[in-house]
Amino acid sequence: MVREILVKSLDEYQSNLASLTTDEKVSRIFTLFMAATDPNTGDSWCPDCRAAEPLIEEALGQLENRDDVVFFIVEVGNRQAWSDGDNVFRHLADQCVTGLPTLVEVKTQARLNQTECQVKDKVMQFFAC
Fold first, then answer.
1. Contact call for residues 9 and 92 (beta carbons, < 8 A)
2. What CATH number did the domain enclosing 31 receive?
3. Is the pLDDT at 76 greater than 90, yes or no?
4. 113 pairs with which residues across the strands?
5. 49 catalytic, yes or no?
């Protein structure tokens, strides 16, 4: 089963990522950078993130028997925090996030940005073995 890890800070993400990139049992690591959950609605404040979520969940279902895959869900902040040009996720050296949602495969640096995450064929192919 794919191991899903929800993180809400850059330090938490980098710490978890560092330990997993050296784990020989882990063959693939994916990261979904998305808007934080709105406490009033229980959903992401970002409409593009909300639209992409069911497609990403379906694609992850292809990997249900893969215990060598890790999927990070990284909440980049509320609307105000994301709108700040100094948001730390906008300045990551190897995974610079310019829009939400953004999917990255860590080892290959393959990525889907924003509306690409809403195209079922692209999302399914992104996670294909």
1. no
2. 3.40.30.10
3. yes
4. 102
5. yes
Q: How many domains does the chain have?
A: 1
Q: Which of 49, 96, 117, 129 is catalytic?
A: 49
Q: Is 129 a catalytic residue?
A: no
Supply the range of the domain harboring residue 81.
3-127
How are strands ordered across the β-sheet holding 102-105?
3-7, 69-75, 28-34, 102-105, 111-113
Q: For residue 128, how many other CB atoms are within 10 A of its CB?
A: 9
pTM to 2 decimal places: 0.94
Average pLDDT over residues 62-85: 94
CA distances from 67 to 56, 87, 88, 116 (A): 18, 32, 30, 26
pLDDT, mean over the chain: 94
